[in-house]
Each structure stands twice: as structure tokens, then as C-alpha cells.
Amino acid sequence: MLFRDEALVVGPSWRLVLHEKRLACVECFTTEDRLERCVQCNFPLCRICLAGKGDTFWHATVECQHLRGVKFSANNDDEAELLRQIACLLPLRYLLLRRSFGDIDLCESGGRLAKDHASVAHCLAADFGVEEESATAAVRLMKANAKSVKDGRGSALYRRFSLVNHSCLSNCKTLVGACDSLTVFGLEARSTRNIR
Ligand SMILES: [Zn+2]
Ligand SMILES: [Zn+2]
């Protein structure tokens, strides 16, 4: 075992909502057909998460109160717009939680943002009361560092794991999830061969 890490922030993945265009519970990312709505902000939640019986509480504890403050209500009429708003939750949670874990010095993806990602940054600024510059920086940071979790339905940001370099011929593998004493989004990096 090389190291363990806890997720700083977790949200619905862009692959799920922007590319596969699937509505998901904003807490556990299930895509079941009968999703309910949060009575405060109208974002989709499954019945388990709506009842507060899920494994995590990102929505209730991180953004729902902020959304009330900026008078946000998720779009019910335009599904493409709703999916874009759900895609904003990963960078929004990062921005709202940054105060608690402090600034982290991670690289941001450079160059021109793809159309989908630029639209998330615009939506963050227009609908969620975030400054344009912070919105773009948060989107770039997620793009460069977020790791796929929950079979690709979620994305998570890890402090230590973000410092690991990618290699197509990697010498370690990662394990995420509630097994071997890991928490729901606990990550363990294990070497697959001797590292000198
Ligand atoms: Zn759920
Ligand atoms: Zn809510």
C-alpha cells in the first residue's frame, strides 16, 4: 500500500450528465427513473437520499442552503439546462468547501476549454452566484484533477492523489470505496510492482 486519501469533494460526473445526458440523483448519482425533487432547490434526489438515509450528505450540507441564498431553483422545463446545472455541482461544491480545507495548490488544465466545459463555467457564474473568474478556475481544476468514482457516475477530487502523475504504463493501481476498511470515497493507492 502506498497511501490512503479521503475525497475533498464529490459530485455527479460530467461524463454522466454532459456526455451521456442522464439525469441523476445529485447525492448518490443513481440514474433510476423515479427521481424526486429537493423541496428547497428542485434538484433531483432519489427517495433514499431525499429521506436523508444515504451514505453521504453533500447536497444538504454543502450547497442547498447556498442555493436558497442565491434564489436558485433547478430548471424543470429544459432538460439540457438542468443537466448543465447538475454538472455545476462538482466545481460549486469545491468552491463552497474550499474555505474548510484551505487553498490547494493543484494544476489547472490549460488551453481553451471545450464547449461543454465552458458552458459549465458560464452556468456557474450565471445561475449560482459565482464570479466568472472563480468559476472558470474551478472548472479547469476539476478537469485536470477529478477522478472517476462510482463506476464513472461520480467524480471526486483528492488532495494527495492529485499529485500523482499519469502514466500509460503505471506502476500502481487505485481502489476506491467501502471495502478493506475504506470509507465510501476513501482511496487507496497500491503498487503493482517494486518501486525503487
Ligand atoms: Zn440518491
Ligand atoms: Zn436542495
Outline, from the CA principal axes? globular
Instruction: Give me the Rg, rounded.
Output: 17 Å
Q: How many structural domains in the coordinates?
A: 1
- Amount of beta strand: 15-25%
Q: Quick check: average pLDDT?
A: 92
The biggest sheet, with number of strands, parallel, antiparallel or mixed sense and barrel status, is: 3 strands, antiparallel
How is the largest sheet built, in terms of strand order? 1-8-7
**Helix/strand/pairing category:** alpha+beta
The ordered string of helix (H) and strand (E) elements is EEHEEHHHHHHEEEE
The percent range for helix content is: 25-40%
Low-confidence residue ranges:
none
Q: How widely separated are the two ends?
A: 14 Å
* Ligand inventory: zinc ion
**How many runs of DSSP E, i.e. beta strands?**
8
Helical run tally: 7
How would you summarize what this structure contains?
The protein is 36% helix and 16% strand. It is of the alpha+beta class and 196 residues long. The protein has one domain.
Protein traits:
196 residues, alpha+beta, 3-stranded antiparallel sheet, 7 helices, binds zinc ion
How would you describe the overall organization of this protein?
Helix 3 crosses helix 5 (89-101) and helix 5 crosses helix 7. This protein starts with a strand and ends in a 5-residue tail after the last strand. The chain is 36% helix and 16% strand. The chain has one domain (12-155). It has 7 helices and 8 strands. The model has no long low-confidence stretch (mean pLDDT 92). With 196 residues, the protein is an alpha+beta fold. The chain binds zinc ion (2 copies). One zinc ion is lined by residues 38, 40-41, 43, 59, 64, 67.
